[in-house]
Amino acid sequence: MVDIELKPIGVIHSPYATKEETPIQGVFRPDVTGWVELFPEFAEGLKDIEMFSHIYLIYFFDRSGPVHLVRPMLLDDQPHGVFASRYPARPSGIGLTIVQFMKREANRLEVAGIDILDGTPLLDIKPYVRRFDLFPDAGEGWFTGKPERPKPPGRE
Q: What is the CATH number of domain 10-129?
């Protein structure tokens, strides 16, 4: 097995200071904006990013908590495997989200639909390409019919 060392290329900024206020997916808060700050030595790699409406942010879950390979999930009391979920406490610690690209100012990108804690380390950016990334007939597995957020206790 090869040892892997990942180094952040920047920092993600959002209005979310706690896990509790962060949406489970950005699609549920499309108007919430944040910004991505690349370290200056990587800014040249943003050439042509303005040509895309959406981008993937690949980041490190630096505050996700202990990893359990099988556990109940936020939207379901039944235990599911971590690889059949989007739960943030993962063996690799790698997170992935799609955000709407709004504008670029030098090494800063304004994005909308953000669902990441403020100060999260950014590992990579990739463009969302509809022709490659859209699968309209994809199944949702155990997520089918689940609400955006679990109901608060006493409000079932």
A: 2.40.30.70
What is the predicted pLDDT for the residue at 50? 97
In which residue ranges of the chain is pLDDT below 50?
151-156
Condensed to tens digits (0 to 9), the pLDDT of residues 142-156 reads 777 777 665 444 444
Place of tokens 């200071």: 17
Q: Please say whether the beta carbons of 98 and 54 come within 8 A.
A: yes
Domain ranges of the chain: 10-129
CA atoms within 13 A on the CB side of 7: 3
Tokens of 19: 């896990």
Spell out the alpha helix ranges (H) of 56-140: 130-133
State the Cα–Cα distance between residues 132 and 151, nearest whole angstrom: 35
What is the pLDDT, as a whole number, of residue 103? 97
Query: How far apart, in Å, do the first and last CA atoms of the chain sit?
Result: 47
Helix or strand or coil: residue 74? coil
